[in-house]
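Much of our argument rests on the idea that a fold can be written as discrete symbols. The amino acid sequence and the backbone structure tokens for this protein are reproduced below:

___
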Amino acid sequence: MKFNHLDENKFVWECYRSPTSHLVYFAHRKCATCTYIALLTQLNWYPCKSTDIIWDNDLVFAHIKNPLVKHRKGIVEVVAAFDLIDLVMQQPDLQRLLVTADRFDVHTCTIQRFFGHNALKVKWIPIDTDLDHKKETVDLIETYDPPIAEHVKQDFFSNPEANKNPSSHQEVALYEKLSALPVTPLNAYYLDFDQCLYDYVTKKNFEPPNYDLRILQLKNLGHDQISAEHIADDEVANQEFLNWKF
């Protein structure tokens, strides 16, 4: 496994484009990508890069899961790739060191790092909630593309996720150890954008934790309480809250 230099201005990310519409799938790793790449390949979608996306024209969709879970599962993936599972399992200090890192490779890279403000233009589908993400994805595809053949859909719905490298017992055990460790302030800061985005996508009546700060900021700019709440609510609805600065 080769580490890549994660410069968002130079690094390009794996995507797949529909041959018949402006749909583009972003392969957000650790989010059932093998399952969806297999389906889209069967539908003759072709590989492209994130740099090929025309943001004012394309409809980009991707899948999302709890950012902390994704981050720590990504760490396990890196450790396994270097055949270091046994070593790390025996070294609690090394485990604590690993979880303090912000990123190692594509599996631990954040949505914010992938897309910046363009993350707000992506149709995000959660894969770790009660939502049937397979049905949601198929419905989205069929909204813009021709209907998927019935036998293809049935196979897709009935088959388990097509992970080419399912987690071993050791990998599961290491993830459990890492997930039990506390989140450092630096990790919380690094994952903050992704966590807010995930909460917005998955929670009804979502209100950002810094909502009251935004209200105070708007009032300091001369707005009354009702006007400030109206502005803040619109910013939450439009996902502009992800760019709030204090």
